[in-house]
Amino acid sequence: MTVAIHIENLTRRFNDLVAVDNISFDIEHGEIFGLLGPNGAGKTTTLSMLSTMLKPTSGSATVNGIDIERDEDGVRKSIGIVFQDQSLDEELTAWENMDFHGRLYRIPADIRKQRITELLRLVELEDRQHDIVKTFSGGMRRRLEIARGLLHHPSVLFLDEPTLGLDPQTRNHLWQYIATLAREKGITIILTTHYMDEADRLCNRIAIIDHGKIIALDTPKNLKDGIGGDVVTIRSPDPAAIVAALAEPWISRVEQHNDEVIVSLKNAEQHISTIVTLLNTKQVPIESIAIHKPTLEDVFLSFTGKTIREEEADHKTNMRMYQKMVRH
Amino acid sequence: MDIIYTIWLRNMKRYIRSKSRIIGSISMPLFFLLFLGFGLNSVVQLPGIGGNYIVFLIPGMVAMSVLFTSVFSGIQIIWDKQFGFLKETLVAPVSRLEIMLGQTLGGATTAVLQGFMILILSLFIGLHVSNPVGFLIALGFMIMIGISFTAFGIAIASRMEDMTGFQLIMNFVVFPIFGLSGALFPISSLPAWMGPVTLIDPLTYGVEGIRYGLTGVSQVNPLICFAVIGVFSIMMTVLGAFLFRKIKF
Ligand SMILES: Nc1ncnc2c1ncn2[C@@H]1O[C@H](COP(=O)(O)OP(=O)(O)OP(=O)(O)O)[C@@H](O)[C@H]1O
Ligand SMILES: [Mg+2]
After folding, report:
1. Chain B contacts of A105, Cβ < 8 Å?
2. Ligand closest to CA A23
3. For A86, A289, B77, B186, which has the most beta carbons within 10 A of its beta carbon?
4. Residue of chain A whose Cα is closest to the Cα of B84
5. What is the C-alpha radius of gyration for chain B, rounded to an integer number of angstroms?
6. How far is the CA of A221 from the centre of ligand 1 (A)?
7. Residue-wise pLDDT tens digits, B186-196
8. pLDDT at A320 over 80
9. Cβ(B66)–Cβ(B145) under 8 Å?
């Protein structure tokens, strides 16, 4: 495996704000790599630096072995990018948008024509190729942008929220293209998304980024395993009592989120009756109880504590509960 | 060259499709020509300039058409910025200079085409072009005005975040440039103290150049006109290219 992207202590500040804070990692050739994080985490800023649109404040990175600061054009030639915000010329047709791109990347006329036809067919826009983009739906525009990003056969493709705001069917469709492309053409793909189930299904590895920092980086499987088994969610009028009651060695983690208690443990199906019995003997009331396999959603929550941050007071009780439990 | 052509081509495609804009921007100079021209033709005496006000006004209206269209074409970059299309261009492995030059030539071409339409329409209301060389001279000046002010528009657009400042630029820069240029009246008819002001207005030389080409008479030596507007268009292109290089996205 060769390294497609190498990032070393990359940092970007906007005045006082550190949008990207000293991140370092490598992305292998042919990998589909996901950047996950809440709004304002620094995902777009990271992609902007890697695509030479934004200068890093400090640190360095290479794309296909080319330094992003020393050889901007070299990097630009080898990457394709689909921006978070739309970037088509609405007054031009789908074909003309593609043609403009092909000419900018100096693709010879005959090859250009052939590839445009091929790609428009791939994203199922050949029927609409001579229509003005203004008349396109959001999904059609996105597909056109992805096709355009591939026109010059980049070896690295950046996709910034490629499916944001699209309906589930279109999203599925798009991800299928992307997965097929990565496989068939051996393109390295770096994507950001808010849809974590999609990231889970598609990405070989995922980096969770929050406040500009990488707080976790691994395969989806390892990230989910890190949770410590299955996830049991117990609703109760007295969640604190549950946290106290469940201080057992076979439970890997107990956390309170508002009126819910989230319990992580291995083989939850086998232990569920023990949990219910335990809570019954301690006379803790239960409203509902649910088991699910861990998702990236759970990973995300456990790393970023998003709901915790929403309510500071809650956060403090939670911390006390957790400490009590550990001391027990 | 390919890249400049690509950017130019896009401008042309957009221009041809914007029928309402084409009509909209020839309507004002046409309106001026018909109402000012016919209205004032019998009232205004222009000693030493042929005496016919309409014929005097035509070059001014051609210049006006080129001026406004080109400033507007340059400013269009702001729309590209807001609609996100500028990113697509800027992230490509091409130099900013090529993009800027393509945009300038595209804007200048549309502006000259707009001016040309006024010129053609003017043939029906009293313009006689007897000398094809004069016609080419007028065309040359139109091109230089087009280049100058598209580049000027690009320079402005490179420093503006959105269209809010646009009206300010129109009112305090473009309209004065137009008003002081001698497009509507002979510069010699102004009070003496305003003479120098008209002579620092670069458009004065453009208007006088076109006037020389179309009517054979001008108040400023055509060679001086050529030198001034030529240098001005180079200066604006350099300024536009410089500011465009530093555009943020
Ligand atoms: N040009 C800029 N000037 C000032 N601050 C900026 C600029 N661009 C981004 N930021 C700030 O940097 C931080 C990271 O922004 P970024 O766009 O990278 O987030 P993101 O992870 O892409 O978020 P989202 O999911 O909403 O797209 C934010 O706080 C944002 O306000
Ligand atoms: Mg973003």
Report:
1. 92-93
2. 1
3. B77
4. A87
5. 18
6. 29
7. 888 878 888 88
8. no
9. yes
